[in-house]
Amino acid sequence: MNKQKKIKKPVMQKAKPKEKTANESSSTEKGKKTFGLLRGMHDILPKDEKYWKPFFHVAEKLAEHFQFGRIETPIMEEASLFVRSLGRGTDVVDKEMYIFEDRDGTRVALRPENTAAVVRAYIMHGLWNHPQPVKLWYWGPMFRHERPQAGRYRELWQAGFETLGTHDPVADAELILVAYNFYKDIGLPVEVHINSIGTPEEREKYKTELVNYYRAKRSYLCEDCRKRLGKNPLRLLDCKAEQCQPVKEEAPQIIDWLGEESKNHFMKVLEYLDELAVPYTLRHTLVRGLDYYTHTVFEIYPATGEGGAQSALCGGGRYDLLAEELGGRPTPAAGVALGIERAVTALKQYNEQNKKEMPANNLQVFFAQLGDRARSRALKIIDELRGQEIKVAFNFFKNSLKAQLELANSLKVPYALILGQKEVQESTIIIRDMESGVQEIVDQKKLESMLKKKFDNGAKKE
RNA sequence: GUGGCCUUGGUAUAAUGGUUAUUACGGGAGAUUGUGGAUCUCUCAACACGGGUUCAAUUCCCGUAGGCCACCCCA
């Protein structure tokens, strides 16, 4: 052994320091190119499944309960769909879209979000002829060419809920409830931030007021804010620079610039939330970056308040004008998009801090097999157990009993079944209690009933 | 898009301008061959890539890529 080692390594050693000539050859002959990920992209591996699956299930369940129909639209659309909906001048459109010409010369974009596409589908398939409102949900990847950071990816998964064809504030409240439950059901404490940005007209008036106010204080502002003043005044409210805080605090609030109708709508939404006991915080600085929003806007954050700058877990609001903008008939609507990666990250962090773990696998038995004959018999029995809805783990790639039990142990399975030559001969099987180590030999025919009895007893004890 | 920090096996880490790059977890095999959760043995596996400085670079410098942080913005 040792000798082999000594021979092997010096050879490797020599190959490397052969300097420049060796380098060339090693990069072509020996060193096969390996591939990494495109920037900002990530794989979702089986180990993450315990986080991703529950979120999907919760979304699916909520959709079922609240009767949102599933819709999946293509991840590519005509680029102009997003330009129109999100608005020229928004960052998402101007600098974050994956946009290219396909082989036919069509201007194509990878969807940066899904509301526009859902509205497109709503119009295209004449869903306005269905009983209104039409409630839809989706789950899939979005693409934004941003500079990546933790919680910010270029491919990001979103679940979304959209309610189209109603002006009723109860729709806003329902969406917030759904989003709130999405986190609550999974055990992640969150807080809802909410605001109203009224109609475009009201917003314009407010913007003018805001600009006037800020202009007077221009000399106190940070550099960014001076830029924002001309470019994107609503963003002034988001400024984190310390020097701007006093100015910000005194700034006019959009609420005061809403008309009767808008105000009433907002009040109604809040009343519903009170009734639903969804805790929320009014945040008059909450505006949103996509052009299509009107009236209610909201975001949800982890209640821990940690997680860096991009900690918003989801965002949504009303978009009463979007359908019309996209060529449909006027259709009041509202929706919410939930970032799955951020939810996963927040939940992981929360679990870590609170020493919680995701529910363990619900495997009930491990099937250990010894020898060829046992193996083929095992497959049959396992299939029968599957028919009985008994969740059984096994690994036919390991042959020693020891290795198999080791696996059973690491999987935390309560019972192991052991089938060897002897048992095959006698048509029996061993049931081993993994905790106590007690084993009993039972007739294979009685296996299912025995197991079920044990599971029942186990359930009763708990 | 702007600025900054960072990059050693799958993960987490140690050290070093110069013979076999540390340790733990993890993966595989095993400790008299049909029994796990303890211990032990063996084994697998890394200096992101490219260029430069140097007699010599994983170590110093530059570039690229990627990650992270803040901003911009957003989920």
Structure explained in plain terms:
There is one protein chain. The chain has helices spanning 2-15, 19-30, 49-66, 79-86, 91-95, 115-124, 169-184, 200-216, 223-231, 245-250, 260-276, 322-325, 340-353, 372-387, 401-410, 421-426, 447-461; strands at 69-70, 76-78, 98-101, 107-110, 134-143, 155-164, 190-196, 280-282, 294-302, 314-318, 333-339, 365-369, 392-394, 415-419, 428-433, 439-443. It is α+β, with helices and mostly antiparallel strands and 462 residues long. A hairpin with a 5-residue loop joins strand 15 and strand 16 (439-443). The longest helix is centred in the N-terminal third of the chain and has 18 residues, at 49-66. The protein binds one RNA strand of 75 nucleotides through helix 1, helix 5, strand 6, strand 11 and helix 13.
Number of distinct beta strands:
16
* Helical stretch tally: 17
Distance N terminus to C terminus? 52 Å
Q: Please outline the major beta sheet.
A: 8 strands, mixed
* Strand fraction: 15-25%
The coarse silhouette is elongated
Question: Runs with pLDDT <50, length 5+?
Answer: 1-31
Helix content: 40-55%
Summarize the SSE layout with pairings:
Elements: H1 2-15, H2 19-30, H3 49-66, E1 69-70, E2 76-78, H4 79-86, H5 91-95, E3 98-101, E4 107-110, H6 115-124, E5 134-143, E6 155-164, H7 169-184, E7 190-196, H8 200-216, H9 223-231, H10 245-250, H11 260-276, E8 280-282, E9 294-302, E10 314-318, H12 322-325, E11 333-339, H13 340-353, E12 365-369, H14 372-387, E13 392-394, H15 401-410, E14 415-419, H16 421-426, E15 428-433, E16 439-443, H17 447-461
Parallel strand pairs: 1-5, 7-8, 12-13, 12-14
Antiparallel strand pairs: 2-4, 3-4, 5-6, 6-11, 7-9, 9-10, 10-11, 14-15, 15-16
The protein binds one RNA strand of 75 nucleotides through helix 1, helix 5, strand 6, strand 11 and helix 13.
